[in-house]
Amino acid sequence: MKAALFATAVFMAPCITLADPLPSWGTSQSKDRIVAFVDAVTDPDNPDYVTPSDRIAVFDNDGTLWAEQPVYFQLTFAMDRLAELAAANPSILTSPTLEAAAKGELQTIAEGGHEALIEVLNASHSGISVEEFQASVTKWLDTARHPDTGLPYDQMTYQPMVELLRYLRDEGFRTYIVSGGGLHFMRVFAEDAYGVPPEQVLGTYTGTTYETADGTPTIIKAPGIAFVDDKEGKPINIERTLGRRPILAGGNSDGDFAMLEWTTAGHGPRLGILIHHTDAEREWAYDRESPIGKLVDGLNKGPDMGWVIVDMAQDWNRIYTGSE
Amino acid sequence: MKAALFATAVFMAPCITLADPLPSWGTSQSKDRIVAFVDAVTDPDNPDYVTPSDRIAVFDNDGTLWAEQPVYFQLTFAMDRLAELAAANPSILTSPTLEAAAKGELQTIAEGGHEALIEVLNASHSGISVEEFQASVTKWLDTARHPDTGLPYDQMTYQPMVELLRYLRDEGFRTYIVSGGGLHFMRVFAEDAYGVPPEQVLGTYTGTTYETADGTPTIIKAPGIAFVDDKEGKPINIERTLGRRPILAGGNSDGDFAMLEWTTAGHGPRLGILIHHTDAEREWAYDRESPIGKLVDGLNKGPDMGWVIVDMAQDWNRIYTGSE
C-alpha cells in the first residue's frame, strides 16, 4: 500500500507540473507568445530573466478582465443605488438627470455627457464612509443580474484572464489592476474574482476626507473625481504608486494605450496584450466605432509595437467565469 | 565529525530563534510592549492573532526613521541641488529666494514660509524626468555630509528603528513608509536603508506628466505639490493606496497624529508608537516648541490612547546606523 502511494505520488508530480495553466485559451499564437514570454523571464539561464521583484503585470479591468457592455457595470450600480436611495428618500432626486438615472434611463445619462455622469456619481458614491459604500457594492453584486446574460456581474469576469492572472502569480509575478473604474468599487470584488488584493488595485478615485466628528475617525467619500485613472493617467498612477515600470500590461481600449506604450518601451523583455472584442455570438463585437472600449490606436499601432492582439472569438475556448 | 556538526546544528537552532531581534533597544517598557504586541498578533492560539495579509505597519520617515535636524534633509538636498544647477547656469536663480537658497541661507528660506519652500522645490525638483531626479538624489547621498555628525544622510537612520522594521518583516508584517517627505526622494534610499521597496513608500508628491515628445515615453516631474502626505493626508493616502487600515503605526510629530489615531481606532489589536526626541547629547531634544517635528497632541493624548512613547535617551542603546 505504501509503495503504491509512493508510486502514485511520483507519477502525479510531473502531471501537476505539466498541466496546462491556461486551459481556456485555445491553441493560438497569442497563448504561445504569452507562455514563451513567461518562460523567458522566469528562467535564470535565459538572457531575458527578470528578478521576481520586477515581475509586475498590470491589467485594465473593464473589457479586459470582465465585460463592459452594454454599459460600464459601475454605471449600472450607480443607477441601481440611486433608485434604492430614492425609494427611501425621493427628495434626493434634485434634477431631471438624477430622476432619469433612478429610472435606469441610460440614454438620458449618455446624452448628458460628463456632467450628467458626475452628477450621478456624486449622488450615488459620495457623502458616506468607504465602508458603507463598499457594503452597498457587496449587496449589489449579491443581488443584481446582467440584463443579457442573467449572470451576477462578478461572474462576467473572463475565465481566460482569471487563468492568466493565476498563472502569472504562480510564476512569481505580482498582478495589479489599473483601471478607469472606481478604486473603492473594484476593491470589493477584486480579491475574490481575480486574486488581486486591495493594495494592488489602482483606479479612478473620488476625494476622501478624514472625519472625527462623532469621536470615531472615519474616511468619507467626497463628491467630484480627484483622479481619472485613464489614458496618460494610467502610467502616471502606476509610477506614483509602484515606483516601478511593469514588464507586462494588458488592456482592451485606447484608454490603455499609454499604459501599454510605457510598459513595452522599457528596457529588457516586455509584453503588451490587447483583448480584441471579436465575438458577437458569445460576448460583444466592437472596436473602432464603439462609444465604450473604443480601440483605434491599439489596432493601428499595437502589432508593429509587438503587442499580442488577442482575438476573443478565435483564441478563447470559454468566455465567462460564471458560465461554461 | 558528522555527529559533532549535527550537535552544533541542534545547539545553534534555538540560539538563532532566541536571539534578541531588537539589540539596540535597551531594557524598557517600550521594547516589552512592542514585543508583546508582535507576539500576540503572530500567535495563532492568541485571541489577538492577525492574519499576515493584515499585518500592515506604517512609519513616518523624518524624525521617526532618520533624523530631521537642524532642517529636513530633503531641504538641504534641494538647496545643494540648486547651488549645483546655478553653478552651471546662474540664470536659473530668478529671485532673491532662489539666490539665498543656492547660498544655503536657511534663515531666509524659513522666513519666506510656504511660498519660499515651493519656489525652492519647483526649481530643484521639477522639469526633469523621475529617473534624472532620482539620479541626482543618489549622487547627493553619495557625497553630501551632515554638518553636525559628518555622516552621510542615509546613515543617520535610527538603528533601533531599522531593527524594528526588520523584526516586523520577519514576523510576517509588511512595512510601509508614510511620510511628509517627497515620494521620489525617499524611494532612492528606502530599500537599501530600511528594506522598504518602492511600492511601499508613500509620500508627498509633485504632479507628473506623461511625455512622448522625443518618441520615448517619459514621466516628468511637474512644478507644484499635488498631494501633501501629512496630518489627515496620511490616513487618506494609506486608505487610498492600500485599502486597508494598518495595525501598527509609528511617528514622532503631530503630523503623524491622525495616522496613529486612525490606526489605533480600528477593531482588534493595534499599536501606536511615538518617538520622543529626548536625547540632546546623542541626537537632539525637541518636542512642544520645535518648528520641526512639533509634538504636542501626541504627548497630551497619546498615553491615554495607549500609544507607546519611546524615550530616545532612555530606551535606545544606540542612535544612528552609521555610528556606534
TrEMBL record, chains A, B:
InterPro entries: HAD-like_sf, HAD_sf. The keyword Signal applies. Residues 1-19 form the signal peptide. One of its GO terms (molecular function) is hydrolase activity. Gene3D superfamilies: HAD superfamily/HAD-like. Keywords: Hydrolase, Signal. Transmembrane segments: none annotated. The keyword Heme does not apply. It holds the Pfam family HAD. This is Haloacid dehalogenase-like hydrolase.
